[in-house]
Amino acid sequence: GATGVTVQGETDVSVGGATSSGGLVTVQSTLGGVTAGPLAGATGVMVLGQTNVRLASATSSTGPVAVTATTGDVSGLALGSPATDGRLLANFGRADLTASGASQT
Length: 105
Fold this sequence. Notes:
There is one protein chain. By secondary structure, the chain is an all-beta fold. Helix content is 0%, strand content 46%. A four-stranded parallel β-sheet has the order 1-4-7-10, with no helix packed on it. The chain has a four-stranded parallel β-sheet with strand order 2-5-8-11, with no helix packed on it. The protein is globular.
């Protein structure tokens, strides 16, 4: 959307992807986890999961990228087969976070 995109749920939230050409992208689960495809916000991306957060990518043109998993892990999306490169979460890929000209947390 031009003014922002918000996806919020009480239990696990799953989003195929979201883009805001002029605002903030916010994805939040108050009791569960978040799984999201590519997220792109002009003024920022905020993702909050009470448990795990699994992301393809989060990109912001001018604002911050903030990702929080309160009681779980932050990772990429599930892999088809486990990785063998020594990563802690062998069943999940990497999450690409990019905040152009802004802070990353």
